[in-house]
Amino acid sequence: MGKPVILCVDDESVVLDSLKIQLKKAFQDEYFYETTESADEALEIIEEYEEEETELIVIVSDWLMPGIKGDEFLIQVHQKFPHVVKILLTGQANEDAIERAKTEAKLHRYIPKPWNAEELVESIKSGLKTIDN
């Protein structure tokens, strides 16, 4: 079993690149950082992690993506992996989607784009504290 994984899902590669840089800067080599451009691809990766017994600890997801929207994706993940910290990072989500993610996916935090790197890192840290206890 390797390092725990932080998975970032966004249909814009420039956003994924920025997230990966910010997370590596904040957490160094403590975690493995995975990025994917769709919820469908993320679900496949999550299944692979499960088979490999690799621990997925955080998902940072956009809301407006082709195919499955972020709230629906996080709900699907939560049904199978309720312990995973879920963060919605988006400039497009409507209030109903955010509320659905909070109630049905136990959304840890909603962060609007453009985001503040410190806020994102603090959100991840506070989310990780909830699963450590």
Structural summary, described in words:
With 133 residues, the protein is of the alpha/beta class. The protein has a single domain (5-132), classed as Rossmann fold. The protein has helices at residues 13-27, 39-52, 70-80, 95-104, 117-132; strands at 5-9, 32-36, 56-61, 85-90, 109-112. The chain has a 5-stranded parallel β-sheet, with helices on both faces. Helix 3 (70-80) packs parallel to helix 4 (95-104).
Name a few traits of the molecule.
single chain, 133 residues, alpha/beta, Rossmann fold, 5-stranded parallel sheet, 5 strands, globular
Question: So what's the CATH class?
Answer: Alpha Beta
Main beta sheet:
5 strands, parallel
* Mean pLDDT figure: 95
- What would you call the shape? globular
Strand proportion, as a percent range, falls in 15-25%
- CATH H level, superfamily name: Response regulator
The fold-level CATH name is Rossmann fold
H/E element sequence: EHEHEHEHEH
Output the strand order for the largest sheet. 2-1-3-4-5
Distance between the termini: 22 Å
Please outline what is shown here.
With 133 residues, the chain is α/β, with parallel strands linked by helices.
Task: Tell me the layout of helices and strands.
Blueprint: E1 5-9, H1 13-27, E2 32-36, H2 39-52, E3 56-61, H3 70-80, E4 85-90, H4 95-104, E5 109-112, H5 117-132
Helix pairs in contact: 3-4
